[in-house]
Amino acid sequence: MNLSLYQKLALSIMVIFGIICALVYSWSKQLELTSQHHGEQNLHLQLAEHLVQDNPLIKEGVYDYKALENLFHTLMLLGPAFEFYFVDETGKILTYSAKPGKVKRSHINLDPLKQLIINPKSAPVYGDDPRNTQGKKIFSVAPVYNQKSLQGYLYVIIGGEAYDTSLNTIKNNDQLWLTALWLGAALVCLLIAMLILLRFFTNPIQRLARDVSKIEAANYSITDTKLSNYSTQKSNEVHSLGRSIQAMITRIDEQFKALEQSDKQRKELLTHLSHDLRTPLASLQGFLEVLNQSGAQLSAKEQREYLHVSLNNCDQLKQLIEQIFELAHLENGEISIHKETFNLGELIYDCIAKFSLTAEKKGLNLTVKPAICDFPVVADIAKLERVLSNLIDNAIRHTPKGGSIAVHVKHIDKAQLFVQVSDTGVGIKHDELNAIFNPHYQASNSNNEGRQQGGLGLAICKGLLKLMDSEINVQSELGKGTMFSFNLPQKIKV
């Protein structure tokens, strides 16, 4: 049988409620009966003693059992709630007033009688009911003497058979049934109120279960799934759990989308790389085929030109393949960083010298600001040289003849330096600034100067700087130039 959480809790509460009601009712009835017996026994405690003292027939010790039976009959007519018995010192019932067959016992246990005589405050004390072999009744008792010799006991049952019959008749009265009905109705209303409260408290759990089922049915996508709203009260654990689960599922959904986007980008990257590799490879193959088939018909100058172009294509292929491997190692976390302290100015001037000839041919002005930048920094010198070389190479390719390129070093604070590589080139559109660091992305106004570029340089720069706990930023204005900047620590952090 499949039951919901609310149904299980409701069923459990109903069972527990019923058991508790039964126990409380039984305990209250027992307490009521005990209190009633205590009061009645204390009220009639000296009844038997007064009868012994006031009745000459008993007081003088002359026991006419027939006369005593008539006396008992008269007393029972006056007080139907009482039954009178005379027992001897062994507990044998000698006389009483009752129809034949009504009295079931011939003897009674005298211990309760003696207990009440010795200690009247021990009430309620229960003695044997002569009319019921298993029954017990409260009683009043008094010893009967004849010249100081114990003859027996006057044993008076309080609340006898006639009293019980009358009481049972009253209990069957409509008014008592009406009272019991009202009591039952009150208990049912209380149970309904408890079930409503239980429904109120478990409803958020059911909503949460429905939300999770919806998300599971939607393959854990929350794009088209409407979720419930939960309050922000920290004291409500269920609502807090609902918010946490929604936040977790939102995070999972974001990660799924990021993975899908990453997979899409990888496919696009493979497509672009295939094209980038095919172009220089096809050019290389074409020139080599010409040299192979028509080598004797070509002049020495044409052969040198074809070989030069082929070597350039080989160099482009080599650089592109190296960039692909470097980016793959960065993404897989396979590149380690070896930090050391070195002079940043020396590294910058080394990179400037490497590109000085290219810049001179293009009529570009390469400068370092300040000219003397004797700044010790803590970084991986090889990785930083790779970053600076990529940024300067990009600046040269995108800066027209007569422009300028500057590497500027600034202080951020006592422990940080700010490195800027700026140019007066073509610039980058504002809506493309966030995309230029993606692998293989090339801005719409990029200038490759006849060379095939893989578009991986800035992605590699970003990855290398991230390994050195730095972040690259870009500012650009179309037609006026671009500036890349990143920070470097001047000393090892303690």
In words, what does this structure look like?
It is a single chain. By secondary structure, the chain is of the alpha+beta class. The protein has 3 domains: 44-172, Beta-Lactamase, CATH 3.30.450; 237-330, Helix Hairpins, CATH 1.10.287.130; 338-489, Histidine kinase-like ATPase, C-terminal domain (Heat Shock Protein 90), CATH 3.30.565.10. It is built from 12 helices and 12 strands. It has helices spanning 5-43, 47-54, 56-59, 65-78, 111-118, 161-171, 174-217, 237-294, 300-331, 344-362, 381-397, 457-467, and strands at 82-87, 93-96, 126-128, 136-146, 149-158, 340-343, 365-369, 376-379, 404-413, 416-423, 473-477, 481-489. The strands form 3 sheets. It has a 5-stranded antiparallel sheet with strand order 2-1-5-4-3. The protein has a 5-stranded mixed sheet with strand order 7-9-10-12-11, covered by helices on one side. A hairpin with a 3-residue loop joins strand 11 (473-477) and strand 12. The chain is rod-shaped. It starts with a helix and ends in a 5-residue tail after the last strand. The model is unreliable at 450-454 (pLDDT under 50).
Number of strands: 12
Tell me the CATH architecture of the largest domain: 2-Layer Sandwich
The CATH H-level homologous superfamily of the largest domain: Histidine kinase-like ATPase, C-terminal domain
Order of strands across the main sheet: 2-1-5-4-3
Order of helices and strands: HHHHEEHEEEHHHHEHEEHEEHEE
Low-confidence stretches: 450-454
What's the rounded overall pLDDT mean? 79
CATH fold call of the largest domain: Heat Shock Protein 90
Which structural class is indicated by helix and strand composition?
alpha+beta
Could you give a short account of the major beta sheet?
5 strands, antiparallel
Domain Histidine kinase: 272-492
Enzyme class: transferase
Pfam families: HATPase_c (PF02518), HisKA (PF00512)
GO molecular function: phosphorelay sensor kinase activity
